[in-house]
Amino acid sequence: MIYNVDVHICFSFLLTQGFRMLEHRAKHKGLKNFRIMRVCLGDLSRLIVSGGGHRLTLRDRLERRKEADIMLDARAFLIHKIL
Question: In which domain of life is the source organism classified (predicted)?
């Protein structure tokens, strides 16, 4: 199945803004050793199509754009057992 990423791009932008806001607040409160981790739980082998028509997997997109610090494949055996 192929998905368009327009909604994903908008959602990613909003998340990025949220991360920046949290980091800003932590800095102003003087918190030390504060770090936000971006976690993606999804079907990492899912094929997506960019606005320009390029096809790539969700994992490839996340790695290329550095959109997640931790990637969990929802289709992995361990995740199925947990859920």
Answer: Eukaryota
Q: What is the CB-side half-sphere exposure of residue 79 using CA atoms within 13 A? A: 11
Mean pLDDT on 1-16: 56
Three-state SS for 12-56 is HHHHHHHHHHHHHHHHHCCCCCCCCCCEEEECCCCEEECCCCCEE
pTM for this predicted structure: 0.62
pLDDT of residue 80: 67
Residue bearing tokens 């057992």: 81
CA 59 to chain centre: 9
Please answer whether residues 26 and 59 qualify as being in contact, where contact means their C-beta atoms are separated by less than 8 angstroms.
no
Q: Which residue has the tokens 């997640």?
A: 68
